[in-house]
Amino acid sequence: MAQTDPMHPAEAQLFGDALACELDVAASFQAGTPSPAALQGAIATLRAVATIEDAGAQAGEERREANPPLQRMEAKIDLMLGLLGRLVERDEPQMALIPVRWSYKGMRLDLAAAAEVTTDAVGTLNLRPAPWLAAGIALPARVLASADAGDRHCLWLAFDSMPDALSDAMERHLFRLHRRQIAAQRGAAP
């Protein structure tokens, strides 16, 4: 993770009083706003991820007790979805896995090189919200700030024109990510 000034105005504005996660995500920013269809697709994708992850967490005990034929069927479905994901990846532009800090208010991308963007430029944040997901989603974002931070370049993006349904789905996703990070930290603690 890039070291940034915790008192940077953009850092305070996006993360000061918000639940935030720091993780590596496949993401990129580009000029141009996402279409209404892309926004609806992002809502549907985040809701589907929530359904899958919530059902998976609840079924953890049941899976351990599941019968072998059901476990084989799940393994076959997982394999087919993985193969389908690889096919989709061939048609999708590749996004680099980068360190980010993410809240419902926005995201800081820690880039290897400076982005050619201007403050207040409006664009699309493309990201893969789950590592197992082959396709990404498109979120509307505005460049809040851009600054060098040692060997990295920080790009702060604000989510101030996001539809309510998309904002709600993203907040739910962030809550699950945060809960998972806390559980991992507790599991790693001696």
Describe the structure.
Helix content is 45%, strand content 26%. The chain is α+β, with helices and mostly antiparallel strands and 190 residues long. It has one domain (9-60, 93-182): Thrombin, subunit H. A 6-stranded antiparallel beta barrel has the order 1-2-3-6-5-4. A hairpin with a 2-residue loop joins strand 2 (97-103) and strand 3. Helix 2 (36-58) runs parallel beside helix 5.
CATH class (first level) name: Mainly Beta
**DSSP summary: helix tally:** 5
> Strand tally, please?
6
Helix content: 40-55%
Q: H/E series, N to C? A: HEHHHEEEEEH
Nutshell version of this structure?
The chain is an alpha+beta fold.
Attribute tags:
26% strand, 45% helix, alpha+beta, 190 residues, 6-stranded antiparallel barrel, 5 helices, 6 strands
How are the elements arranged and paired?
Elements: H1 9-15, E1 21-31, H2 36-58, H3 60-65, H4 68-91, E2 97-103, E3 106-111, E4 122-127, E5 137-149, E6 152-158, H5 164-188
Antiparallel strand pairs: 1-2, 1-4, 2-3, 3-6, 4-5, 5-6
Helix pairs in contact: 2-5
